[in-house]
Amino acid sequence: MPTQILAAGTNEADSTEVVVAAGTPKNIGAFRNDEETLELRFRGLIYRKDPNGDLNPTLFLLAPHEPNVVITGAGTYVVRRMAGIEHSTGIQVD
Known about the structure:
Elements: E1 3-9, E2 13-14, E3 18-20, E4 26-32, E5 44-49, E6 55-62, E7 68-71, E8 75-81, E9 89-93
């Protein structure tokens, strides 16, 4: 069962942290609360925390053509929903 880590919305916002332990991949995905496909402008940028607690960009991205990403590398990750979308979109993990 998926767990919501960022409530559906249209503004820029960061998810709660997703901790990925070695050997336990996590599936991170975006969803619309009306069960439609993601709009073309949607982007969920995935960042990895460094030892100083700073967020660093990764090559992982949630987008309409890739609404789910499996993270296998150990670390602490945060998804940033970018602003400028019309339909409420949230982020989940399972």
